[in-house]
Amino acid sequence: MQKTARSTLAAAGTLAIVLGGFVITPNIVSAAEASAVEEGKRIAFHRAKGNCLSCHKIAGGSQPGNIGPALVNMKARFADKAKLRAQIYDATASNPNTIMPPFGKHKILSKSELDKVVEFIYTL
Amino acid sequence: MKKLLLISAAISVLGAPLASQASPEDDLKTFRGYFMERFPNVPLEEFANGVYAIDADSREQWEAIEEFPPYELAIEEGEELFNTPFKNGKTYASCFRNDGIGVKGDYPYYDTEKGQVETLESAINACRTKNGEKPLKWKQGEIASLSAYMAYTTRGQIIDIKIPHDQRAMDAYENGKHFYYARRGQLNMSCAHCHIDNSGNKIRADLLSPALGQLTHFPVYRSRWGNLGTVHRRFAGCNNQVRALPFKAQSTQYRDLEYFLTYMSNGIPWNGPGARK
User: Fold this and answer.
1) Which pairing describes strands B274-276 and B220-222: parallel, antiparallel, or unpaired?
2) Which residues in chain A touch residue B191, judged by CB atoms under 8 angstroms apart?
3) Quick one: which of B133, B134, B104 has its CA closest to B121?
4) B238 is annotated as an active-site residue
5) Structural domain boundaries of chain A?
């Protein structure tokens, strides 16, 4: 049941991308966004995917590590969403000594997974 | 393809605290100084106890475990194996100084004849082959029990690993040091990232032990393993965690790594075998 709901939302997401730039009903857009955030959260928390909780405190996650800063106020920290994406894509670009894994550059997350994680993190 | 991805990660050496090529003596001073400053309330010899030296809560659980040490049976098994003659009538004692009692401190050392670092485990297997026996598997089982017994008879001695002024020994040391500071694996982390820069921090629910004193207590009984393992088993585990291809136990890389890291524990007592989470 849940699965069906999710794949419907995923389909809506695809539609939104395909139709990007065209006029689409507000209903579909928000459903697609909600789905990306929801999936982004799942990917961010999953131990075999983002596993961001191993280093960051994130609202809604349990037993966080304390290697990196708590992820809060993300819109204030990153006025430009592309900068947030860049941090997650390859943290070594801004800090060559960082311990944070280069999730995009090393293909730990696929492009679409990374995009969803960015959507989720940006809600924090 | 997947394998390629795992090892293709760029290897770069990190900065602090051992950036340039210095003498091992200078390295040791800097290394120890860093941890003494990071953990000002922890006396040097306490670093033999890993995370339990720096965290009161887990220390309490550990002390309870140590009342009925989970490695005790392995020490007994090791002692029995140690004293059981080979088919040729000789025993392990014949291969070691002082009949093999209290000699773990002789390892690792640079063997100029073999041209490589000799570890306690490689010496145990060399003893077997010299006496016509098959070598044991490297990471667990009988070799860990033998090693545990030999560590046990060495408890309390102060670690004093020597790096002779032989270029090849120096190269092995440098190679091990490089390994500790090099990024590795798909997750792109070095040992130093976790055990130097972030020692005392938590990665998810796990507290990260300081690199100082990290090799005093091997082989180790890990609750997660449910049995005893050698130090190279632990190295492979930490390589796996960052999705790097682990090297083989007793590979040159791990021997050199053990050489460097044990040297960095100089001045701290041997206290193996140990028990850890």
Assistant:
1) parallel
2) none
3) B104
4) yes
5) 26-122
* Of the candidates B45, B70, B98, the residue with the CA atom closest to the CA atom of residue B271: B45
Which residues of chain A are within 8 Å of residue B202 when distances are taken between CB atoms? 65-67
- Residue by residue, pLDDT tens for chain A (124 residues) are 344 334 433 333 333 333 333 444 444 557 777 799 999 999 999 999 999 999 999 999 999 999 999 999 999 999 999 999 999 999 999 999 999 999 999 999 999 999 999 999 999 9
Neighbours of B155 (CB within 10 A): 15
Inter-chain touch A101–B189, beta carbons under 8 Å: yes
The answer to whether the Cβ–Cβ distance between A97 and B189 falls below 8 Å is: no
Structurally, at CATH architecture level, domain A26-122 sits in: Orthogonal Bundle (1.10)
Residues of B in contact with A55 (CB under 8 A): 203
pTM of the model: 0.88
Return the residue of B nearest to A55 by Cα: B203
Q: Which of A49, A52, A106, A109 to mutate to test the interface with B (most CBs of B within 10 A)?
A: A106
Alpha-carbon span A7 to B34, nearest angstrom: 53
Question: How distant is the Cα of B81 from the closest Cα of chain A, in angstroms?
Answer: 41
Name the β-bridge partners of B274: B220
